[in-house]
Amino acid sequence: MQETCLFQNPKSKSRETDCMKGLLVLNGGEAFSSKTKQLDHNWLQFIRQTHRPRLVVVPVAVIDNPRRVADQVMRYFNHLGTFAEYAMLVDSLSANTPSECEILDQVDAVVLTDGSPVDMVERLHGTRTEAALHRTRERKAALVAVGASAMALGAVYWFGGVWEPGLAVMPHLAVIPHHQIVRMRLSPEKLMAGLPEDVMLAGIDDMTAAICYPDGTVQVKGQGQVTVYRSSETQESFRAGQTFELSI
Prior knowledge:
- By secondary structure, this protein is an alpha/beta fold.
- The protein has helices at 15-18, 37-48, 66-79, 92-95, 98-101, 117-124, 128-136, 148-152, 179-185, 188-192, and strands at residues 24-27, 54-58, 83-86, 109-112, 142-146, 156-159, 162-165, 173-176, 200-204, 208-212, 217-222, 225-229, 235-239, 243-245.
- The protein has one domain (20-245): Class I glutamine amidotransferase (GATase) domain (Rossmann fold).
- It has an eight-stranded mixed beta sheet with strand order 3-2-4-5-1-10-11-14.
- The longest helix is centred in the N-terminal third of the chain and has 14 residues, at 66-79.
């Protein structure tokens, strides 16, 4: 049987390229509100195709009351025309229990909420859930990460003034969420100090997403901008509708 894609990027060169990997959506923060419905509608169109997409919300980065957060996000996506549910993968035990995390390999999209990157990395490191997140794009599904979750998926994440090892779902990328605030407090020289040479740094504003297509093209959606740190002296900023290329 011929393999089919969950979506096709109209900007890509061929359908064969599209079938290489799924969609990656990195949101800078302040997500899942009336102000971000159009942003989420945009990436949902790529997995909708002929069926109502199935989506699971994972609140593993949430510090307080993860079930309440997961329920709110689930309801938000149900209102956007998906079959949404949530999985309470909130600690190392649940994240490593086959019956709890098997849903991650069965849905069209996995959504990771905001919270603490430290807690998320500690809870998922070495678990079946971590392995499933690495498989998500390989099986042509969408992986959506907001704020702290986007940080945790990177090769490294910024914490306490240093770069700590992340889950490396994106082995060549590090993400700074809430970037419109961070850039007023931390200089490029400070942020890039200690960053591994083969890792690119991207800052993403609140209510803004970098939608990463299979061919390496990244499109910006939302109200803010995405800033790519080429070096401590050179940064490039992109606004809604603009595209650029990024190795993740």
